[in-house]
Each structure stands twice: as structure tokens, then as C-alpha cells.
């Protein structure tokens, strides 16, 4: 059974290994560029803000930046590919062609057949994604250390252990959709939709609540007003303060000294169409407004990683258990 399973997955295994090896060579070639650019930052011990800014500007203009973007895309794309091309056809192909009747009438039981097939698929998904995530995380650690933005939604899912959890979930999601739909192409489409929806929904509605965010209330000054909107007819006004640096801001409200949300009314002589932005900001500063900010600092990176990875691994385990039950009880 193991030999037969290897015969079925060897092509995709070889292709995945070759792609990972090629990408690994690309990371090795460009790693020297980052090391050279980072030398000044490593030698700096105090007052390094300008040095860090210069490093990041030079990095974005270097030949390593396209690799950085490619690595970001690869970390999100690999789990999806494993789900739609590895997981979705696993059972659906057998059911669509009718070969499951022959396979399950041999000496190998349904449970053993599914266990071996899932074990092989999970091993490929976890190993390939884990190696790629480790390589990308190590390769980009100097850039992440300088920018301190790895906790923001765009980068968060492409670092650490989370891509491995994504891959495990995507693979078993594909297996489940293929088992239920019994057709490969519809299973691929549904897996694509469900996986993308799940990954997009996490930073929008779920991730911020997995770990309690830091809550700060700071004075709103003329220097940290990031944006404002004004309705001249009603005088209503919305003011947005600057987001917390080196963190993922999940809540940012402007409040009055009594704690209520500031909505105006605005002084049109200071903030009207004829007034200058400087005058408006100075008037806002005179109101003693405050920013009520909720954010996740860089120190929350690993707690959020473990919490979200645990959630997706738990979902994957439930999907796997459901597959075993369905194959043993419902498929004829």
C-alpha cells in the first residue's frame, strides 16, 4: 500500500522538491545583498532611526526586493496549491472514475487506504511548507527586525509556523470537498473559495481577538493628526490620529476628555474650507482630545502565531476525522 501510494504521489513530490530547491538557491544568492546592506544597522547601537530608514530604502531599491515579494507570494500560494492539486483529487478522482469499488474490495481496508493516503499528503504538505517558511523567515529576519512590521496582516501569514497550519488545513479541506462532491474540478473550485475566504476572514474578524490587544490612551496633538473629514453643512467632524508605530493597530478612536467619541461640531473659522490645515490642527489640539488605541505590538507575534496555528490545526483534525467517518460509513 505504501509503495502504491508513493507511485501515485511521486510526480508531485518531485515537482515540489525541485521548485523548493530552485527557490532556495534564489534565497541564498540574494541573502548576501541583505547582509551587506544591513552592516550599518548591525554596527549602530544608539540613535539608529535614520540608519534603519536608510537600510529599508536601499533594500527596496536593491535586487533582493523582487525576491522578497516573490517569497511573500509563495508563502500564501503554496498551501493553496497543496489543497487544490493535492487534497481535492485525493478521493474525488477515485469516486469520479469509479475505481474506489475495485480499491476497497482488495485486502486493504478503507481505513488503512485513507490513513496511508492522508499520511503521505500531510507529510508532503507539512514538510514542503515548513521548509519554505523556515527559509523565508530566516532570509527576511534582518528586514523584519528593521521594519518591525511582521505582525501586520500582509506579512503575518507568511512567517513562522502559520503557513504550515495553513497547508495542513488546505490539504484536508481539499480532501473533504472532493469526498463530498465526488468531482475533481468542482472540488478544486470549492476548495479555492473556502480556503481563500478562511484566510481572508482571519485578519478581518478573528485574529485581533485571539490575544488581548494593548490598550493605550494618548493625547492627540497637532503632530499626530493623520486625517480628518468635515461636513460643512452639519459641522460634524471625524478625526483620525496616527497609528502606533511598529504594531498592528486594530482600533483607533478620537475621544473627548469625558471618554465619549468626538464628532464635532467643528469651528468652521478654524477648520472650514478657507482655513489652513495648520490652523485646524492647532484648534483640535486646544480641545484636549485623546486617542483611544488598541494594537498588537511586535511582541505579540508568536502568541498570535501559536493561537491561529492551533485554530487551523484543530479545524484540519476535525476535517480528517470527518473524512474517516464518511469513507467508512457513507460511501458505497
Structure description:
The chain is mainly alpha-helical. It has two domains: 2-210 and 300-329, no CATH class; 221-288, no CATH class. Helices cover 66% and strands 10% of the residues. It has twelve helices and five strands. The protein has helices at 2-43, 49-60, 64-97, 100-103, 110-139, 141-147, 153-156, 162-181, 184-206, 268-271, 277-286, 301-329, and strands spanning 214-219, 225-230, 237-241, 247-255, 290-297. The strands form two sheets. It has a three-stranded antiparallel beta sheet with strand order 1-5-4, with no helix packed on it. Strand 2 (225-230) and strand 3 form a beta hairpin. Helix 3 (64-97) runs parallel beside helix 8 (162-181), helix 3 (64-97) crosses helix 9 (184-206) and helix 8 crosses helix 9 (184-206). The chain is elongated and about 85 Å long. The protein starts with a helix and ends with a helix.
Pick out its properties.
3-stranded antiparallel sheet; ABC transporter permease; 66% helix; transmembrane helix; 2 domains; 332 residues; mainly alpha; membrane
Amino acid at each position: 500500500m505504501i509503495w502504491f501510494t508513493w507511485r501515485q504521489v511521486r510526480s508531485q513530490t518531485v515537482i515540489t522538491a525541485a521548485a523548493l530547491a530552485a527557490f532556495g538557491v534564489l534565497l541564498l544568492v540574494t541573502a548576501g545583498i541583505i547582509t551587506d546592506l544591513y552592516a550599518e544597522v548591525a554596527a549602530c547601537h544608539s540613535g539608529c532611526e535614520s540608519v534603519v530608514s536608510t537600510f529599508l530604502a536601499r533594500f527596496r531599491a536593491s535586487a533582493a526586493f523582487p525576491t522578497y515579494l516573490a517569497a511573500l507570494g509563495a508563502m500564501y500560494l503554496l498551501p493553496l496549491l497543496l489543497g487544490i492539486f493535492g487534497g481535492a483529487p485525493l478521493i474525488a478522482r477515485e469516486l469520479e472514475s469509479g475505481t474506489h469499488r475495485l480499491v476497497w474490495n482488495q485486502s486493504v481496508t478503507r481505513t488503512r487506504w485513507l490513513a496511508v493516503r492522508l499520511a503521505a499528503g500531510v507529510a508532503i504538505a507539512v514538510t514542503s511548507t515548513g521548509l519554505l517558511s523556515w527559509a523565508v523567515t530566516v532570509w527576511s529576519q534582518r528586514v523584519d527586525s528593521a521594519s518591525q512590521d511582521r505582525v501586520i496582516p500582509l506579512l503575518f501569514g507568511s512567517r513562522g509556523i502559520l503557513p504550515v497550519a495553513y497547508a495542513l488545513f488546505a490539504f484536508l479541506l481539499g480532501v473533504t470537498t472532493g469526498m463530498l462532491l465526488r468531482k475533481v474540478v468542482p472540488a478544486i473550485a470549492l476548495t479555492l473559495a473556502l480556503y481563500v475566504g478562511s484566510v481572508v476572514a482571519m485578519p478581518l474578524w478573528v485574529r485581533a481577538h485571539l490575544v488581548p490587544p494593548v490598550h493605550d490612551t494618548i493625547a492627540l496633538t497637532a503632530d499626530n493628526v493623520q486625517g480628518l473629514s468635515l461636513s460643512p453643512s452639519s459641522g460634524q467632524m471625524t478625526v483620525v490620529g496616527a497609528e502606533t508605530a511598529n504594531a498592528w493597530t486594530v482600533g483607533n478612536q478620537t475621544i473627548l476628555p469625558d471618554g465619549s467619541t468626538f464628532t464635532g461640531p467643528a469651528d468652521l473659522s478654524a477648520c472650514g474650507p478657507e482655513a489652513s490645515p495648520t490652523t485646524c490642527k492647532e484648534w483640535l489640539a486646544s480641545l484636549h482630545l485623546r486617542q483611544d488605541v488598541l494594537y498588537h505590538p511586535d511582541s505579540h507575534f508568536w502568541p498570535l502565531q501559536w493561537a491561529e496555528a492551533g485554530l487551523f490545526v484543530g479545524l484540519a483534525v476535525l476535517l480528517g476525522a470527518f473524512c474517516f467517518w464518511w469513507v467508512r460509513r457513507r460511501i458505497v
